[in-house]
């Protein structure tokens, strides 16, 4: 019999219950006990939903982050919180957020606020974890209380469980040595604590433990490969069986290593590493369990169950009881329940599966293999109909779009002339001062804007009424910018709920869920749009707003668009064609918008690519290919304009060292980036590369409510000017201002303009 199991379940709740409970607690509106109860209820519900499986995960639930949970389990708390003596959960929030609650901070007097832990992306997902901190003196100490409590809870409910932990090598690899010491030197000590943890679990009667080592799908140096070997040889004497889980990609050169580790089972991502499975069968020792992740844990499409069974049948034959089935990775990365979607177009809905539906698919696969396809004949037939319908749907396939894609020529990516020639024409046209000032696009999303949008969606406000409110907000933004004396203005993005959703809603080929939330970090969730079909733009998306804004001022008004790569990377994308094909389609659609803006007399157009860097593949060897089509897509979008039209791009980061050549190759006339927190040091990459075009390095951090002083911004710009010739520098904030209040924005920008004036006076 085949065993079915799951690697992890989304914990935020189908209605985002955990988010609301956390935020209420942090605001001081509810008690810690209430929050703990919500956690308990969610765990129970989620085990209930997983009761169709042979083994459900325990320990995958986290109040904030599973990596931070692991740090607490290993007793690896940053020194700054070690003497806290309140509730451990409060201390946990202090590491995550710098404080446990907004008001009535527990132990505020005795223990005080602390710096929040650093956050970074979990492999190539949009989930962010709290980075474990190490020093040469880090001392680990087991605290299994959380795991044991959840294990006991599951036992009471009669759930067949498999505890889930992050493996020791991944834990070290994703952390940071604060003193630049060698993290691997901590491994022997860390392994002692892991051994103790496994023994503790064995004493509870646990049979299997899932140990996540996704680091095995990345490029490992010989030292790290050796660490993997060492770790599992040392843990081999444990009384529990280890299921070593890898996911998010192929094992590639780590395959032999992974196959031969002394563990009882190995889990492989059979979506992203399907081609490795058959060769692996030959490599795998005869006693070992092979768990195949056959349901995509990263996307929302129904699995083609019949095709999967065709592929699986001979493998099942060969492995017998040693075959386990699971989703490819934790379901943390998909929404909870498609059944909640009552407004989603029924045809599109019939092609989708969220976490709950994915577990049902798993169940069908296992039943078919265990008892024959007859036993699930109806489910298989229904699945077949949905798969076929999607494959043939006219909503997915638009021959006109495909035809245009066939005619992509290199000329489409080419500006008429090189930057120096363009820059001269643009300078003559715009006549901007030295150190020109601008902003990144959005102005505060005020209560009025949000209310109007709510009313419009609820049908309480008609189109004209809604437009009137938005126009009033745009007019306000323009007035304020003129009063501040900014040089290049923006309309402020009042009409945009979200920089991807706004465009997705107007493009053919996109659908939107109501409850398709996915945890991004802590209580924050995103609802990625669903890119399901060939992309086209039925009509202009931004022109009337930008035209209106331009009509209010004689200063240049910057048109504002989201770029194709960011649209792609922040969406659930098609699995029936390569990502780059979808990206080129987006590029062509947004290019039309660029050209329409230009036709409407808009001479400066910004194309945001906030997520370009995020899309970099896990393995460096795959970067080139990604960057090649990503940059080509941007160029297709941007480069149809005349020399006089100035193209800007914006990116919310500035670590460009390893991709600076490609950034330069995007050839935007102006790039604005986030630099204020790094003291302009990150501009070194541009300096070293002799980056040829204009740069607006952010001079103040928009995440903070603090009003930046002009002197500080002048000093930052001087540092910038030491690296980049002053005539190619712009002055702007780090990012958009939508999350700030007008009362913060106005004095901040006033100081920024004054800083620019001082710089001009000095020059
Ligand atoms: N133009 C967008 C804004 O100003 C850019 C946001 C972003 O880069 N994340 O909000
Ligand atoms: Zn930004």
From TrEMBL:
It comes from the Bacteria. Residues 435-757 form the Cobalamin-independent methionine synthase MetE C-terminal/archaeal domain. Pathway: Amino-acid biosynthesis; L-methionine biosynthesis via de novo pathway; L-methionine from L-homocysteine (MetE route): step 1/1. 5-methyltetrahydropteroyltri-L-glutamate binds at residues 16-19, 121, 524-525, 570, 614. Its EC number is 2.1.1.14. This is 5-methyltetrahydropteroyltriglutamate--homocysteine methyltransferase. Gene3D superfamilies: 3.20.20.210. PANTHER family: 5-METHYLTETRAHYDROPTEROYLTRIGLUTAMATE--HOMOCYSTEINE METHYLTRANSFERASE. It comes from Methylophilus glucosoxydans. Residues 4-318 form the Cobalamin-independent methionine synthase MetE N-terminal domain. The keyword Disulfide bond does not apply. One of its GO terms (biological process) is methylation. Its cofactor is Zn(2+).
